[in-house]
Amino acid sequence: MKKRRWLIAALCTAMLTSVMAGCGNSGSTGTNGNAPSGKGQGNGDKVSPPAQQPATKLTFWNLDENATEGSVGLNALEEKLGIKAEFIAASREGMKEKLNLMISSGDIPDWWKEPSFTEYDKFLQQGVGAEIPQELIEQHMPKYLSWLKRYLGEDPFKYVRRDGKIYGLPVIWDIGIDGIQLGFREDWLKKVGIDKTPETLEEMEIALTKFRNEDPDGNGKKDTYGITASGDNIQSMFSSVFGAFDVYPDIFREKEGKIVRGEIEPGAKQALEVLNRWYKNELIDPEFVVNKGENVEDKVLTDKIGAIEFYWWAFLPGNAFLGGEQWYDKLAKKHPGFNFATIGGVKGPDGKYGISQYNPAFASGVMFGKQLENDRDKMIKYMQVFEATQFDPQIYELMQFGEKGKHWKESDKGTVEFIEPYTDEKERKKAGIGGYSMAGSFNDYDFQTSYTSDESMRQLAKDTRAKGTRNIDILAPFNKPVYNETQDKLKQFTLQTYIDFITGRKSLNEFDDFVAEWKKIGGDKVLAEAQQVYDENLK
Asked: What is the distance between the alpha carbons of residues 73 and 435, in angstroms, rounded to a whole number?
């Protein structure tokens, strides 16, 4: 979880570098990826107001003082929806403490955002969260609902439903569900005589062998390896090899109605046999056992590794998706004509393939205070604000970029380009441009990056992303007390044993003993609990 939140923050930084205003604070809408001028009317035109009625006072969290009253975006929002926005000042780190103090004093706020699933259930036990009728979401947040369904399926409320009722507007990290792919250095493939991207384990093994033995970097030394990994994460360590046998360690999956864990399935032994062979043949970087994320990146960028599992956008130019300087850009500076060849996984003996991904539901969502159950009109107003600021192109552009022609223009690459003096972030902040969008929880990256990515490269990003698989932990959002108490012990035991199997310190004849011990130290109870959670919530 910490790693994923760190990555989300990093993505925000990359997008800000490319004039995208605040990933964690901004919203989005499902679009077809047209250029900014085709999305909204963020040019200062008057927004038609509703029939004249007293403005409804709504309260919003002003995190890190990013909200600016009187900004062009906020004025347009208030006029369009007939509201008056007021703000609760809080730091991003102090929001949870402030929320708990307000609740304990009986001053329940109208809404709050992104509690963990454990905190979500705690708020419900305290009786402070309001039920959210599904029909209200369908009626007043249709674009939001459509976005959810693209990643969570036809029942996007399955993770926030309790006793048949919904108490949260789900929040998702949509690029987590299909983000990781297997990338090969295409220049190395060509150098060693391979003219197509490996699609099977056998083809991958041939490529890795050549990467090790045929001097693909041309320096006359045997100092390159086929593949590496970060040896501190059992879920992502050589996941494509395990996926070739349809097993995914460290996550809960369903097979024929039964919950399974990939690390103890028979297919895991087959994957480990392959990895052990690759290690013996020096195809795997021997330092993978001590690698951290930064070590892996360094080996890729210093031309030591020919294949790696990582986020697909790192394999593309930064201006194709998130902005900023990606792995591709750094390597292309050194190697003219450089490219990565990407694939969602390599096929095993039964044609299976895939890579372990993140469940996009990383937090519960936006919750409303209990008092709004008796003030449906106010709840609807909040929904309309969230929909407008994050899924209505006109309001979104006004809030994030200001007026077209005054604050920004469309560049010749189809991206937002700020106009002087608003090229200066301080000037934008004074004008209330960017950095705030009321809810700040619903981020459709396909839409948001259409402001930062070159128009000519958007199809490349779309086609590359489509190669990804969606193998996720289906139980990640649910509270599992037994697992929570046992997971660290199971992970460390599995990680160390797997490393021993791969490096040959343990014989794979001991795999059945490993499975028995895994169950003995708590795995059997974890599986029983997981089955019950699945049966009660997803079956």
From this structure: 12
Three-class DSSP labels, 93-114 = CCHHHHHHHHHHCCCCCCEEEC
d(CA 353, CA 180): 13
User: Which of 153, 149, 134 minimizes the C-alpha distance to 30?
Assistant: 149
Would you tell me the crossing angle of helices 72-81 and 376-391 to the nearest 10 degrees?
140
Alpha-carbon gap, residue 278 to 363, rounded angstroms:
38
Cα–Cα distance measured from residue 291 to residue 225, given in angstroms and rounded to the nearest whole number: 14
Half-sphere exposure of 358 (CA within 13 A, CB side): 20
345 backbone dihedrals φ, ψ, rounded to 5°: 150, 165
The pLDDT of residue 20 is 36
Backbone angles phi, psi at 97, to 5 degrees: -65, -45
Nearest partner of 379 among 106, 89, 56, 163, judged by Cα: 56
Of 447, 460, 313, 463, the residue nearest 34 (C-alpha): 447
pLDDT in tens, 149-168: 999 999 999 999 999 999 99
Instruction: List, for residues 209-243, the tens digit of each pLDDT value.
Output: 999 999 999 999 999 999 999 999 999 999 999 99
Q: Partners of 254 in the beta sheet?
A: 259
